[in-house]
Amino acid sequence: MLYSFGYLFGVFLILLMILTLAAAVISRYIFNDPIFWTGEFARIVLIWTIFVGAALALKRDSIVEHISMDFFVARFQEKNRKVIDKIVLLVDLLFCVSVLVIGWIFLAKTYTIITAALEVSRAVIYLALPAFSVMSIFFILERLLVPSERESS
Q1: H helices then E strands: how many in the chain?
Q2: I want to staple 96 with a disulfide (CB 3.0 to 4.6 A). Which of 16, 108, 136, 145 is the partner?
Q3: Which one, of 109, 106, 112, lies nearest residue 127 by Cα?
Q4: Under 8 Å CB-to-CB from 72, ≥6 apart: which residues?
Q5: CA 49/CA 66 separation, integer angstroms
């Protein structure tokens, strides 16, 4: 359920970014009247897209998920890799909890600061950190507690 929502939200964000940037290009080069807020809006949407995509990659067990850790995990025998995989997931969980705490701190410090073009709270940007963390924590806990098809076989 959370993955489906995240996937649809990610698709929506990408479409929103494409439409925003297309409107910026059309308004600037065809009508010679640029829309001043499109750059800032596209940056905010890009930040959200990155964090939602990162959480979804964690759920899908993406190959890019643990590039640096795979280098070390590959050196262990097959029977020890399951234990190492669990340790890696626990490190990921610790990282996501840390990002969640840091995200809330950023939210508390930035909710009164207003962006230049859109005139919205900067907390809109930093809310992506807790959103990423919460999604990732659910996905990590699912992988820790529910055995995957790879582990079953």
Answers
A1: 7, 0
A2: 136
A3: 106
A4: 84
A5: 20
Kindly report, residue by residue over 38-50, the tens digit of the pLDDT: 999 999 999 999 9
| Mean of per-residue pLDDT scores for the chain | 88
Q: What is the pTM of this model?
A: 0.85
Angle at CA of residue 97, ends 130 and 84, nearest 5°: 130
The structural domains of the chain, with segments of one domain joined by +, span 2-152
Give the tokens for residue 151.
Answer: 């582990």
Q: Is the dihedral of CA 17, 127, 57, 95 positive or negative?
A: positive
> What residues contact 39, with CB distance under 8 A and at least 6 apart?
24, 117
What's the pLDDT at 42? 97
81, pLDDT greater than 70 = yes
Q: Where are the beta strands (DSSP E) in the chain?
A: none
